[in-house]
Amino acid sequence: MQLSINYGTKTIYFDVIYRKRKTMAITVEAPDKVTAIVPVGMKEETIKKKVMTKADWIVKKLYEFKNVKHIPLKKEFVNGESFMYMGRNYSLQIELDDSLQVPEVKLFRGKFIISTPTKDEEALKNAMEKWYREKAKEKINERVEYYQYKIGKKPAKVTVKEQKKRWGSCSSKGNINLNWKLIMAPSPVIDYIVVHEMAHLVHLNHSKEFWNLVESILPDYKERRKWLRNNGVRMGL
Ligand SMILES: [Zn+2]
């Protein structure tokens, strides 16, 4: 179902998804998708009223998407901001807890929850990045393990790290580097990058043979690559 509200001179259109939950959550995704996830049975008028209380934030987000198309989006560490993990968006909830030394992140009941003694953006961002890096390592190591039998080669070393402009790389020594931000992508897309870099263990180029090898393992690799080209800009903090 789609609803809309008028906010100043603007009309905000949004999709409504009913779920078994107690509170409403709103997500805004590039370029202009607004979604309200609401408890089953919530009345239209109530939904509209609640979305209206967030209208200012929604308009700001939509405006950002419009103006920074090619620049990676900067996340805000405030309640309701959405963060990607394995291809899905989860909204953030910040819970102040003075008994903690450093912020702690967890994914719980469909939300990212940061329990934190501070609201300092840098501290929250670091905690979130640390969480993503750990998940990325686990997932990538597991996928490398899985595909090494299909490719028949094993990397000398796998490193998950920050890479400004690429998702992965493979050296002539057989070392593979993968970008931790990959963990924001859906599983099939993560697999594509893993297979791509591991196929370089066999062919250290982008020759026809290289692509044939990738295709023999992932026949639909082009679709997976397309997802990354379309959504890569959203994968960041
Ligand atoms: Zn390559």
TrEMBL record:
Cite the Pfam families for this sequence.
YgjP-like
On the tree of life, the source organism's domain of life is Bacteria
**Domain called YgjP-like metallopeptidase: residue spans:** 22-230
Gene3D superfamilies noted in UniProt: Metalloproteases ('zincins'), catalytic domain (3.30.2010.10)
Q: Which InterPro entries match?
A: UTP_pyrophosphatase-like, YgjP-like_metallopeptidase
Provide the protein name: YgjP-like metallopeptidase domain-containing protein
- Its source organism is Candidatus Syntrophocurvum alkaliphilum
- Tell me the classification of the organism that encodes this protein: Bacteria, Bacillati, Bacillota, Clostridia, Eubacteriales
